[in-house]
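Hi R.,

Here's the chain you asked about this morning:
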Amino acid sequence: MGFLREMFGYGSRPYPLDRKRRQKVLVALAEKEMTISGLARSLNLPQSQISFVINGRRLSTKTEQRIADFLGKSADDLFPTRTPAEIKKMREAEAKQRGKSA
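And the predicted structure, written out as tokens:
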């Protein structure tokens, strides 16, 4: 756990919101005139699981691949691997946003 804390800060989960990842998936869903709920029904998965994966809060290569296959897209394009530096930057942006709304 120390390694993950050092690499990603505060432990490995939950991951920070990945806005770019979410936007890519929402565009692909719009092309198919589908919602996240509709995607969840089509894949027979809980909507919460789909949302967590789309938002980058949880990583699941199996679910990512299923979503990408359904949307006819590359999993690598929709769900890019983030570097520790990118994850740290997303965490900082998320913390800053929380500070503004408090």
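Residues 1-12 have pLDDT under 50 and may be disordered.

Let me know if you need anything else.
M.
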